[in-house]
Write a structure and sequence with these properties.
Elements (H helix, E strand, L loop, with lengths): L19 E3 L1 H10 L1 E6 L6 H18 L5 H7 L7 E6 L5 H7 L5 E5 L1 H7 L5 E5 L4 H13 L3 H5 L5 H5 L6 H19 L13 E6 L4 H4 L14 E5 L4 E8 L9 E6 L5 H12 L7 E4 L8
Parallel strand pairs: 9-10
Antiparallel strand pairs: 1-4, 2-3, 2-8, 3-6, 4-9, 5-6, 7-8
Length: 298
């Protein structure tokens, strides 16, 4: 299975137009701050889905890779990891998204892909599509997260250890590094493994990885060309929510929107008028359309 994981601007031809659903306040905040907020995955509405991915990976290891550092992964399952995400969808006008994210009115909008993708490598971020189909998830776990087939793992004394011998000081050194790498992959990529019942969402996620957690905690920078994103906090309904603020434009440069869809509203003409007042001075070429979904007080 080939998974498109984008980190550089020259990858934008592989990415379809992506939309984010937001309330009017959310859109205004992104426009004014020229940034987006990545929330810690444990504080999101669908945080239980994150454990769907982790448990699926653990089950594959238990069934087909016996002895593959499972205790380390299993014991870390209930710890809160430093994984932050921001979601997009390929679908710009769908009732379930309007209901879920802006039931009293809002927008879906696509940010200029070149502007979005150029920010990712600087801040240790990746963009990837969520995987829903069971067979595709299993293939991804084996090929990308674990990195070798069950048959190769069974022959590890002959193949895996010897091929890695030149890169490590000892077998124990190699095993320790492999264990840490596998743990990172499990908790990183679990964020893009969701139950097939959510397939309609056609979600993509910006993800920041656990291996970069030291950067957020003020520890030494592991990427000399990267920059630190400080953890910030916003008020939730019953707790503080940690998030990272990713800047997309600097100085006088505006954040650029390719298209904005006005969600179901009792006042479509007023919504279009005020949106154009906001966008046109800096985004004269932005396409503004009205949702085809009729307004109802859900």
């Amino acid at each position: 299975m080939v998974l498109v994981i984008c980190t550089e601007v020259d990858m934008n031809n592989a990415v379809p137009p992506l939309y984010h659903y937001s309330t009017p306040g959310g859109l205004l905040g992104i426009f004014q701050s020229k940034s987006i907020w990545l929330s810690n995955i444990h504080f999101q509405n669908d945080s239980d889905e994150y454990y769907h991915g982790i448990d699926l990976i653990i089950n594959v290891i238990k069934e087909e890779y016996k002895g593959l550092y499972l205790r380390d992964i299993d014991s870390a399952r209930n710890k809160i990891s430093d994984v932050y995400t921001f979601s997009f969808t390929e679908t710009k006008d769908i009732l379930s998204q309007w209901r879920g994210y802006c039931p009293t009115g809002g927008y879906s909008f696509s940010i200029r892909s070149s502007q979005l993708l150029s920010s990712l490598p600087t801040y240790y971020l990746k963009l990837a599509p969520v995987i829903y189909k069971p067979d595709a998830k299993i293939s991804f776990i084996k090929e990308t997260i674990i990195g070798f087939t069950p048959e190769e793992f069974a022959r590890r004394e002959d193949i895996w250890y010897k091929s890695a011998a030149s890169n490590f000081s000892s077998k124990s050194d190699m095993l320790e590094k492999a264990r840490k790498m596998l743990r990172r992959r499990v908790f990183n990529y679990a964020a893009i493994l969701k139950h097939e019942s959510f397939f309609e969402e056609k979600e993509w996620r910006i993800i920041t990885f656990d291996e970069y957690a030291g950067v957020f905690r003020g520890e030494p920078d592991i990427n000399p060309r990267g920059r630190m994103l400080d953890v910030k906090f916003r008020e939730g309904s019953n707790t503080l929510i940690p998030y990272l603020q990713l800047p997309l434009a600097f100085g006088e440069e505006p954040i650029l929107f390719d298209e904005v869809v006005i969600g179901p509203t009792p006042h479509p003409k007023l919504s279009e008028y005020s949106l154009n007042l906001l966008l046109k001075p800096s985004n004269p070429n932005t396409i503004v359309v009205t949702s085809s979904t009729s307004y109802k007080n859900w």
